[in-house]
Amino acid sequence: MASTETEAQSTAAPAGDDTAAGTTVTKAGVASGDLAGLEAGLDALESTVVARQPWLRTTASKALPPVVALAIVLGLWQLAYHFELKPHYLLPSPVDVGRSLQQKWLEGTLLNFVWTSVSRGALGFLASVAIGTVLGLIVAQVKAVRAAIGPILSGLQSLPSVAWVPAAIIWFGLSDATIYAVVLLGAVPSIANGLVAGVDQISPLYLRAGRTIGATGPAGVRHVLLPAALPGYIAGLKQGWAFSWRSLMAAELIVNAPDLGTGLGQLLEQGRELQDMSWVLAAILLILIVGIGIELLIFAPIERRVLRSRGLLVKS
Amino acid sequence: MTTTTLTKQQPATADTATTVPYAARIDHVSKSFGRPGAQQHVLDDISIDVAPGEFVCLLGASGCGKSTLLNLVAGLDAPSAGAIETPGGRPALMFQEHALFPWLTAGRNIELALRLRGVPRAERRDEAERLLELVRLKGAYGKRVHELSGGMRQRVAMARALAQDSQLLLMDEPFAALDAITRDVLHDELTRIWTASKSDSAAGTNLSVLFVTHNVREAVRLAERVVLLSSRPGRIAREWQVDIPQPRRIEDAAVADLSIEITEQLRGEIRRHGQH
């Protein structure tokens, strides 16, 4: 807006107001030293220093509201238990759930359950990243491929991955292969879609600028396309992880065999078979904590770093 | 033996220096867009030679196709008719938007251009620092693009364009989005860099500039030659040689006088479109 106005002024009125910078300078033109000083002054005036909040304070102010909310939920839960809205075997207290967790911890099995699921999730996720990235690049770059499988790929995102479980069991039996197949089918589409969206959102200006400095072909993909698509790609990875974790739990709940390791999904299923409600709630809690934990500890910092370095994270 | 080698070599060196007396030749170029039958003629029979070391401004109102012409010279698009030659290889191009990559620091943006030009890794850092110093941004190497002001970004973009070491610099309204004070300073800066490249022509850095603008006084402030394009389709309406010595100031009386003359002609061109 402002630029068009100043432009209009200087073309329409030849004797107009471009003199702003020139009033103090002699007509002979600016000597080189003067120009350097003038520029340094302009740069200093126009640069703003954004001070970052101290780390501890930011964390504290961000952590407080969820902690309060959590305390309120636990309080309401305890009240419901206290007034026995449901019989105790249907609605155990928070303390009962804690004891259930503690018992598994003392048996030394708790971390094993968590590790079994997390390692499966991580492995499945990494495989999904490898496949989804290649697939996404091809769909984003090759018009015919996009026309053919683009809609299917985004449609697959709305298919609950638990729907794949029966098919996977028929194909692979009760095995690890079934679990990984379900995870891949859940996560690959969202990672590929994230990359496609990231590529689509690239400003044409960057592609044009890249071409003029000689970034064409593979160099263009490497130096312009991929880095420019990174924010969308990371959003896709984040969603891909959420889908991996969900699909994994769906698979683990149903694919239950003694020779497969016991993950959190299987733990949950065992709790149901034993009609042990505090065991079931403890397992749900663990699944939630792992999902949120990985998002907060791995994806959130990466995303924040990428966005901040590009000036896309505006603090109000 | 020595004489034959000499006579053999001389035409070869003269080839680039004298037998190609232009940095860019726009030869009877036309450009239309759209399907046959519903075509829109944007450029009609444009011929311009930019001499080595020359500073030419293309001036015109909206719809004169000046940016289209620049894209053609940059090789981003192909003319419908006619030919464009840039003997010095791919020209460097600067836009109204800085078009710097936000995922790289200012210095790395320049280094990427150096790298794509084939400069060895060991030399890139020093060369990037040298170019930043040239646009008076010493110390901005590690700055992120969003940490720089509009004027600073445009100077980094200029350094990145210069990093291509092209003989021809194409500029598409590069200062149009800047405030008047900053624009004025960047005019001085561009004139200084261009003049310095001329006095340094032994090193082969004789920089030619083809500068597109719709700002008459900017054109007169900067150029040795101003080419006025008419609109729809773009044709060459008139040319002026600007003999005012550099460094000029935008508020010089001589600049103002010529600007008034050119503006009158430009307004005449625009009025013709309101008559039918």
TrEMBL record, chain A:
CDD domains: TM_PBP2. One of its GO terms (biological process) is transmembrane transport. PROSITE patterns: ABC_TM1. Residues 114-298 form the ABC transmembrane type-1 domain. Residues 1-21 are annotated as: Disordered. GO terms for cellular component: plasma membrane. PANTHER family: ALKANE SULFONATE ABC TRANSPORTER-RELATED, MEMBRANE SUBUNIT, TRANSPORT SYSTEM INTEGRAL MEMBRANE PROTEIN. Belongs to the binding-protein-dependent transport system permease family. This is ABC transporter permease.
From TrEMBL, chain B:
GO terms for molecular function: ATP binding; ATP hydrolysis activity. Residues 24-256 form the ABC transporter domain. CDD domains: ABC_NrtD_SsuB_transporters. Keywords: ATP-binding, Nucleotide-binding, Transport. PANTHER family: ALIPHATIC SULFONATES IMPORT ATP-BINDING PROTEIN SSUB, TAURINE IMPORT ATP-BINDING PROTEIN-RELATED. This is ABC transporter ATP-binding protein. It comes from Streptomyces inhibens.
